[in-house]
Amino acid sequence: PPTSAKDTFLDFAGSNTTEGWALVLPLLLLALLAVFCRPVDVDRIEIDLRTRPRVRWEALVAFGTLAVGLSAAWVAGAAYQSRYAAIVYGLFALVVACGLLVFVRPAVRIGALVLVVGLGLVGGVRNARTDRTQAAAVATRIAAGAAPGDVVAYCPDQTGPAVSRLLPGNRRLDQVVFPTFAGPQRVNWIDYRSRNDSADTTAFVRRLLARAGAHDLWYVYTANTVYGTRCEDMLGALSAARPAQPLVAPDGIRYFEYMGLTRFAAPR
Q1: CA pair distance 46, 62, nearest whole angstrom
Q2: End-to-end CA, the chain
């Protein structure tokens, strides 16, 4: 839970970037000021461990809901993403805003507001201008070289939705995901770990090559903790069966959702 809480507040501040780290500290400080501090005069602030009535219940609901959710996910061994905490973000922002009211002197209050807004704008510009996923680069290469009937395989299946929605629908590509051979448009999260733990990569590769037949095979892959090294293992198995042409290298530095693309030409 502590690690997940850290990631959640970082994403509230704009993700794990320099701007995010710079903003998360003022946000948390303002939240603490709102809950535990009250102004005495223009130059002094008093700590009130009983908490302040103005935001007591809002803070309790926001932080309590987050704590319960994180604890439940930890006990159940369930996956957690910080976007799940969006339900409490509004209350968190309200508590932070109340923290500004602790500063009675206008210059200090305005200065704190300018700092928070300025850092938020810097992080917002980065988020707006930076691609989160490498899917566009992968889809562009597939669209430029794939022919009708070519097979596009995704490992893990989580790479499927982002890439498949960018591919032209009139190309009539045969798109499948590991390990189910289902379509790539959606991810089936039911019994996800157990289904992938029991997957047979050798059988999948054999069936995939047979399915491609006289057509090219395009393999989209990335690292994934649930899959272990299965996606990389299948890349090696496919390379042993067909000539491999790496087209896109996974770039984990520039992209949050990074992925690679290798083309396996049809037998000549």
Answers
A1: 23
A2: 54
Helices (H), 146-255: 160-164, 192-197, 201-212, 230-241
Fill in the amino acid letter for 39. P
7 contacts: CB under 8 Å, gap ≥ 6: 16, 82
pTM, two decimal places = 0.72
Residue with tokens 């054999």: 206
The amino acid at residue 106 is: P
- Residue 45 CB neighbours (<10 A): 15
In terms of Cα–Cα distance, which of 110, 57, 64, 100 is closest to 85? 64
pLDDT per residue over 112-144, tens digit each? 999 999 999 988 887 777 788 999 999 999 999
| Domain range annotation of the chain | 2-126, 135-264
Give CA–CA dist 240/167, Å, rounded.
Answer: 27
